Amino acid sequence: MNEQPKNIWKSRLTGWRRLLAWIGLLAILTVLMAFILDGVFNWKEPLADLLAVAAMIVILGTLLAWLAIRFVRWLCCWRNLRRFLLGVACFITLIVLAYTFENWRGKHAWEAHKRLWEAKGEKFTMTQLAPPPVPDEQNFALTPLLKPVLDYTRGPQGVVWRDTNGLARLERLQADLSDGRKTNEKLVFGNLEKATFADLAASREFYRGNMNYPQPVTAGTAAADILFALGKFDPEIKELREAAATRPYSRFPIEYDYEPSWGILQPHLARVKKICQLTQVRAVAKLELGQSPEAFEELKLGLRLSDSIREESILISHLVRIATTQINLQTLREGLIRHAWSDAQLAELEKYLASVNLLAEYKLAMRGERTFSVGGLDWLRRQGFRGDPGIFGEEENPGFVIVMAFMPGGWYYQNMLTISEMFQEFNLAMVDDKAHRVFPEVADKSDTAVNDLSRHIRPYKIFARIFMPALSRASQKSARMQTFADAARVACALERYRLANGKLPATLDALSPRFIETIPTDVIDGQPLRYQLQPDGGYVVYSAGWNKTDDGGEIGWAKSSDSKEPRVDITKGDWVWQMPGKPITAAEISPAR
Q: Looking at the structure, do residues 236 and 299 belong to the same domain, yes or no?
């Protein structure tokens, strides 16, 4: 009853317990010292941070060591050990059962979905969506100039091209090779969206003194000097024209069966676009010099190059297809503003444009994009720990690949199902190529669904958050360029009418059926394209645009801080094919418009 309380330093803490206590106390004192140095004395030396970090590590280590020792001592009792082993066995069994059930349920759901849509004609592999093989001697993509771009092998050292000289020759085939001079000169192309035209005088300055191109001894007109500079490519252009005339098919040897699908190489796309730009510059210069037949041949080659990738079931191919179509339509406009095309040439162009179906090409690209996503996820499922988080921009996040490795295979299947259903419900439903329609309201629903993915993280939709965003923009671009292609058909018919009657018609009804079979309909509302004569002697042909409102042929301009470079907002205003009474350059556009 009269026992004195024990000194805390002479309590039951003996041996390892006393050691852990002293270590913990020392760590706490170290943390307090670091806070005092940093907070009270405002000492910003790295030593304070180092002390704090070291102390926190010691505290955590001490706690874990204490728990581990207690746990081991607890296990030394046979009854406790049996309970522990039984609990571990039950836990592992539950995990295995959960994984097994999730794997079965996910795979079953995906295969049922796949069977359903395959019965309706859908395809789920890149090889199924790839264009059919064609004979090499009839393949435009395998002409000697183009062949090296995809002629490579894969090995331990990566991708190795077989014909490096041929590849270098192809890569030099472009109109805008820079020689590294510190100048502001650049090629000034016309812009289809802004209704501007090429500025040849400004473009000539790009070639002056540029040692990538031959220089004329005596300066001539801007067009003549540009053609002199680009004359170095005459042999390559001749080869492509001959290939276009003798090789009716085009299929670039893309590795459609390569896994993962996002590793498929497409270096030919940049080359196709660059050559289209080259033919554009050459064509405009020849138009300026009155060489209409030669300019027409340049335009036809540009169209053939654009067509060479139209059957590729990959989204980036489709986007380049849109870009090259825009380049070629601008070349067509350059001829129209100069009244350079003949009736026969215009009829040929109108017939070609009638065959352009960018909406069907969009749906092929979306099916390919879906296959990219689900096929890539299936490949990731099979990789386990070998998965590469770098494909999602997670190179320095090893935890991400661990999570991917431990995910049940059924979760991959469920994500594949989610992505495929979203493509079917939104991305493919946005466009009806047979009805020649695009539905902005479906795109809006798609954007809402994608935003919901970001707000609610769910295991069955975690990869959909990565793969699905921004795909609705592709439908906008496809619809807009299809509108320009349709408007270009009308423009060809209008020019033919002008050649025959000396003036433009008051309405488009006067064009059919002599100059065009039927007036193309607006992809947005299904009505015939609108047409207005302008006070300056020009005209506009336009669609209601993405906002589904007839704004009287006004382009929607975005607010920009750069007053020299106004930007078009394709979600506002109308989509306008504008043919002014005289050429307008970029410098003449008022930002206020």
A: yes
